[in-house]
Automatic annotation (TrEMBL):
Motif ('HIGH' region): 17-25
InterPro entries named among the record's database cross-references: aa-tRNA-synth_I_CS, aa-tRNA-synth_Ic, Rossmann-like_a/b/a_fold, Trp-tRNA-ligase, Trp-tRNA-ligase_bac-type, Trp-tRNA_synthetase
Gene name tied to this protein: trpS
Molecular function in Gene Ontology: ATP binding; tryptophan-tRNA ligase activity
Record organism: Natronospira elongata
NCBIfam families membership: PRK12283.1, trpS
Name of protein: Tryptophan--tRNA ligase
């Protein structure tokens, strides 16, 4: 089904405040954000409440981890002129939306989110039988639905969360979008678009509802989107009327799964702080070089004259990310024929990683030296996000009968 999201170019994504970021974070998500900010209207935020859902006992430094992470976002090229950057807890509207959505969320939906059981298994040393942890996917739904994005860039592990977000939006619209006299209100709204447009709308609606013709749906949607004089409420009514449901108050987003290379750590496992196998974005380049030089390689290469198998070597994974075809061929051939030594093989990787990190580090340093600039970027982002969030909440409160005058 085509939804309003199809023609909406807003994106929302959050990251837990883990402190300084490493190359795994960079290649896994951040680099993608930098790219997306040019193509979409992006809202990127620090998911600090999310951190508390699993780490409520050692909250000590959430704020400093958040600032450190934000500096790395900026250093990596996330541009506050293109994207809105904010901190979740500083837009408390997220909590209110979470609460209101909780009223219509069946417990069973939350219990069957795969990460619920998985994480409880994985983080056995923590007691995750809490209300906050169970509700965490719903908090994420609130984060997303608040801004009515069309797309949510996420990794594989988060797709289920976008899916539950869609279900919540659908349930919400179904529960509350059917106001009394919906049809006659929609017809009144339609008249405001003028005779010609109203006729076009009726014809396209008929074709969509009777024959499922998606092109007609798109045409009618485009017409509605271009109407400057419709109120928001009327537009939502007409979108709902077009599709055959009630008002579309919350928009169903789609997951944007991006192909990201798997960034291995220094030992070949996934790069992760908990494995101690990371290269930090702000790590001094001498230390980066040292780490790569001492990385384990294919154990079959005991002596320089022993040939190896790149596929058994963690460094080869780095070549796959950092090297061009020629260099990869050189390394592969050199390895299997014992034509090159491991240290020689590591040279181009050290060079490429250093070249990648150099501009990031120099920007990071500028922000480290000017924390006020970072704060004011976030301050501004929080204000922008908040005013967007208030608009959504006003609608949600109203439709749930909470408008006090
Ligand atoms: N749950 C995500 C994670 O742990 C972070 C997150 C919170 C998020 N809210 C979000 C991601 C909204 C995308 C959209 O990585
Ligand atoms: Fe790994 Fe390169 Fe050594 Fe082969 S030559 S084992 S690919 S570091």
């Amino acid at each position: 089904m085509v939804s309003a999201s199809g023609q909406n170019n807003r994106i929302v994504s959050g990251m837990r405040p883990t402190g300084r970021l490493h190359l795994g974070n960079y290649h896994g998500a951040l680099k993608n954000w930098v790219k997306l900010q040019h193509e979409y209207d992006c809202f990127f935020f620090v998911a600090d409440w999310h951190a508390l859902t699993t780490h409520y006992e050692d909250t000590g430094d959430v704020a400093s981890r958040a600032w450190d992470m934000i500096i790395d976002w900026l250093a990596a090229g996330v541009n506050p002129g293109s994207a809105t950057l904010f901190i979740q807890s500083r837009v408390p509207e997220h909590a209110e939306l979470h609460l209101l959505l909780s009223m219509i969320t069946p417990l069973s939906w939350l219990e069957r989110v795969p990460t619920y059981k998985d994480q409880q298994e994985k983080l056995k040393e923590r007691d995750l039988s809490t209300y906050g942890f169970l509700g965490y996917p719903l908090l994420q739904s609130a984060d997303i639905l608040m801004y009515k994005p069309g797309l949510v860039p996420v990794g594989e592990d988060q797709v289920a969360h976008v899916e539950i977000t869609r279900e919540i939006a659908r349930r919400f619209n179904h529960s509350f979008g059917r106001e009394p006299e919906f049809e006659s209100r929609a017809e009144t709204a339609l008249r405001k678009t003028g005779k010609k447009n109203a006729r076009l709308f009726r014809e396209m609606r008929k074709r969509w509802q009777e024959q499922g013709d998606e092109e007609s749906l798109e045409v009618a949607r485009a017409m509605l989107s271009s109407q400057q004089n419709l109120t928001k409420g009327d537009r939502e009514r007409l979108f709902g009327y077009l599709e055959g449901g009630g008002r579309e108050i919350l928009v169903e987003p789609e997951a944007l799964l991006t192909e990201t290379p798997k960034m291995p750590g220094l030992d070949g496992q996934k790069m992760s702080k908990s494995y101690g196998n990371t290269i930090g974005l702000r790590e001094p380049l001498e230390s980066v070089e040292q780490k790569i030089r001492t990385m384990p390689t294919d154990p079959a290469r005991v002596r320089r004259s022993d040939p190896g198998t790149p596929e058994k070597c963690p460094l080869w994974e780095f070549h796959k990310i950092y090297s061009d075809k020629d260099t990869q061929e050189w390394a592969h051939k050199g390895c299997t024929t014992a034509g090159i030594g491991c240290l020689e093989c590591k040279g181009p990787v050290i060079e490429a990683v250093s070249n990648e990190l150099r501009p990031i580090q120099s920007r990071a340093q500028e922000y480290e030296e000017d924390p006020d600039a970072v704060r004011s970027i976030i301050q501004e982002g929080c204000e922008t996000a908040r005013s967007r969030a208030r608009e959504t909440l006003d609608e949600v409160r109203q439709i749930m009968g909470l408008q006090y005058r």
